[in-house]
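#lab-general

N.A. 3:47 PM
ok so I finally got the sequence cleaned up, no stray characters, all 520 residues accounted for. can someone with queue access submit it? mine expired

B.Y. 3:52 PM
send it over

N.A. 3:53 PM
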Amino acid sequence: MTSTPKSIALPVTAVTCLEDRAHVERAVVLDLEAGVQRLRLGPVSALAVDRTLHAELSSDHPATVLDVRITRSWTPRRPLPHTDDDSVLRRRIHSIAQERRSLLQQRDRLHARRDLLGRLAADLLRDIGEGAGSGEADGPRWSRELDRVDGERASNGEQLRTVEAGVAALDEELEQAEQAERASEEEPPELIGHVELTVESAVAGPVGLHLSHLTPCAMWRPAYRAALEGDSLTLETDAMVWQRTGEDWSDVRLTLSTARSALATEPPRLGEDRLTLTDRSVAERRAVDVELREEETRSLGASPVVGLPGVDDGGEARVLRPQGQVSVLGDGRAHRVPLTAFTAAARSEYACSPELSPLVTRVVRFDNLAGHALLAGPVDLVRESGFSGRGTLDFAAPGAAVELAFGSCDDYRVVRHAEESRDTAGLTQRTVITRTVRLHVSRFGAPGEHGDRTVTLRERLPVSEVSAVEVRLRKEACSPVPDAVDAEGIARWEVGLPPDGHRTVTLVYELSASAKVTGL
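B.Y. 4:20 PM
back already:
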C-alpha cells in the first residue's frame, strides 16, 4: 500500500442547508495508481459528523473505497507576547494589555497602602485616647501625627482615583480594539480536519470522487421585501443564511430545505380514551352555569415561539433553490440569498378594530404568484415614500391569498364608547342585557385632498354555545345596520369618509338568558 503525504484539495461543490444543519457535498478528480493507496484530502471542517461521512467513486473506473475517516489535528494559539510579524492592531492590543496589567499592580499596592494608613490612624487615635485617659497632654505632637496621617491618606486616595480612572479608560480602549480585531482579522482555526481515504484501483488513471457529510452550525430562514406601488405589489423572496462551519462556501449549488432530519419518524402511540355518561344532579338541572371567555380565532399552524422561530412549512417539507451559484462566508453573519420575485395586483383596505386598537391600518391583499409556498418570516415594507417598517408574513400556499399590514394611517382617529344596561322581564324572569357600542370615526384631510375613502370597521358580538342564552342584533337601533355579520360574531361596516369628515356608527345587541342561567 502506498501513501500520499501531501494533502489534496477537496472543495465544497453543493450544500443543502436545513433548519439547523447542512448537508455538504464535495467533489474532486483523483489520479490513482494501480493497487491500494491511502490519500489525505482536505482540509475540511472539523465539525463534520463522522458517522454521516460517505465517499463514492465514479462507476466508470474499476476502483473501490476500502475505508474513509476524518482525522483532526489541534494547533494551539501562540502565547503572548506577539512577534513583529503581527499586525499593528494586534501589537496595539498587546501594549494596552501590558499597560493595564501594570496599572492593576499599582492599584493593588495603593489599596494595601490605604489599608495600612487606616490601621495607623486607628492606632494613633487609640494612643491619644489612652494618653488622655492617663493624664498625659501632648497636643502639638498629636496634631502633627494626625495631620501627617490625614495628608498621606488624602494623597493615597488621589493616586488611587487616578489609577482607577486610567484602568477604566484602558478597559474601554481595549474593548474597542478587540472588537476591531474581531471585525477585521480572523484567528486561524485551532482544530483542522482531514479526510483519510483508502482506495483500491485495478488500473491507474483519473477517477472522480464524490464525498458528503453533515455538519452543524449552519441554518437558514426566509425573509421578504414587499414594495407597494399604486395597485401593484412586488414581493421579493430571500433566504438569510448563517454558517460557522469553519470554512467558506464559495460558488456552490445551494439548496434550502425545511426537512427536519433530527425528528423521529415513528407515529405517536394512540391511547384509549373512554367517554362515560352520567345523570345530572338536581342542582345541575335547576341551574345552568355559564361564563364569558375570550377566545382567539386563528387557523391551524405553527404556534408562536419566543426567540428565533423554526421554519413554518405547513407540515410538508419544502425545497427552494436559488438561481446560479452562491457564496456564503463562514463568519457566522447573516447573508441574504435572492430566491424569487413576482408582481401581483394589490387590493388595499383601510381597516380598524376599535376594541383592540384605535388605529386605522392599511391592509393589502394579493395572490401568491411565486410558484412556491411562502414560508412564514419577516417582511420589509416599502411604500412610494420609502421604507415604512417591518411586518410578518404568514404561511401561504401557491396561489393562495396573502394579507399584509402596511402600518397605521395618521390622518384617522377612532374613539369607542360602550354602554350596558340590565333588565329582568316580569313574567318569564329572563335577564336581558343590552349593550350599545358607538364608534366615532374622523378623517383629517391634507390641503387640496379630494375624494372619499372607505374605512372598514369591525366590532364583535358574543357567540352563545348554549340554547339557554340567546344573542340578538337589534337592527332597528343600529345606525347604520352592519353590512355583514359572520359566523364568529364579527360585524363589519364599510364607512366612506370625505376629507375632514366624521361619522358615528352605533351597534346595539341583546343577551337574553333564562332564569336558571347563572354567571352572566
